[in-house]
Amino acid sequence: MMENLVSNWFDGGILPDSYVLPPEKRPGKLIFPVAKMIPVIDFENHDRRSTIHQILEACQDYGLFQVVNHGVPRDLMDETMNVMKKFHEMPTKDKASECSKDPERSCRFYTSSENYTSEKVHYWRDAVIHHCDPLDDYMQFWPENPTAYREVVGQFTIAVRKLASLILDLIGEGLGFNPGHFGGEYSKKPMLLVNHYPPCPDPSLTLGLAKHCDPSVITIILQGDVPGLQVFYDEEWFVVEPLAHAFVVNLGYILQIMSNGKLKGAVHRVVTSSTVARTTASLFIYPSEDSVIEPQTALVNASNPPLYRAFLYKHFRTKYISATADAKTVEQFILKTSTDDHDGHGDVDDNLDLTK
Q1: For helices 313-322 and 327-334, angle between their N-to-C axes, nearest 10 degrees
Q2: Tell me, what DSSP letter sits at residue 344?
Q3: pTM score, whole prediction
Q4: Up-side HSE of residue 95: CA atoms within 13 Å toward CB?
């Protein structure tokens, strides 16, 4: 796989055919508008009710918002971005060695997507996955080089996970859930993903990441200072503007389902640049594999029947990966049908046909 890394083999020239998307999926040469409507929420606002209102409104409209003055030290954010950039500047053989310490592959390096060998078209990115709970167990398999990588990225992971917990508490309170509702099994498997998008010879023909919604509860993204993230809203693509020392918060499918559609998962993609590399860090908050995912009881009644079926998260995850995040396929899996229970507390479908 290491020989396939974009950063390993590409040194300019023409975009290979294996990265050229079908015409309807190409970003083209359009200049996309900046998403000025996306809320930037200041967490130093001491009016908790107002903050909750802003978050829920953003989640209902866009599935995405940005946060500033969030409690994660600015120096730590800068140090994290710097050490991640230095990692991706290392020779490929060194990067491969640094990500090959765990035979279970809890820390691993890959390119395009985890379906590289079966996907029809590749995407212009390299990525490093870091499992991080329990942190002490997994951090021993993280890169040791560049110097201080483990220490800096470990501190960053702790701080961002704390921020994610705060945001989930505020969302839960706004939805009328008991305190700590999203703790425990619903946020048990955080995972840090470091994406690197090298300069691309023709950004109009390819993408760094395809149009998708995350398979997470929420995702917290450190964008850096290079634009690339776009959100799909009202049938148009908008640039999510990089803001200094801000985090982007994406809602995933899981929170959309648990809220019974009151909140929406953010549909987004990543475009590339012809002139500069882009490096980002995303903390995905995932449920445990055996978590039952379904609309929550407090939001379901005779007037608001469940829109989604109950299922185990591991089955959803399998479907999501095998479908390469295709929205129609995923929706066929999660939407409740006339053959499902209609009492809002249906049994978990433990035998769903994942080949459909």
Answers
A1: 160
A2: S
A3: 0.92
A4: 27
Between helix 149-175 and helix 48-61 the angle, nearest 10°, is: 90
SS3 273: coil
Beta-strand runs (E) in 259-328: 268-270, 278-286, 292-293, 311-312
Closest by alpha carbon to 268, among 63, 43, 128, 79?
Answer: 63
Structure tokens belonging to residue 100: 């090959």
> Candidates 2.40.400.10, 1.10.10.10, 1.10.287.3510, 2.60.120.330; correct CATH number of 2-9+30-288?
2.60.120.330
Q: How far apart are CA 108 and CA 1, in angstroms?
A: 11
User: CA 9: distance to chain centroid?
Assistant: 27
Q: Give 60-107 pLDDT, tens digit per residue.
A: 999 999 999 999 999 999 999 999 999 999 998 899 889 888 888 899
pLDDT score, position 356: 29
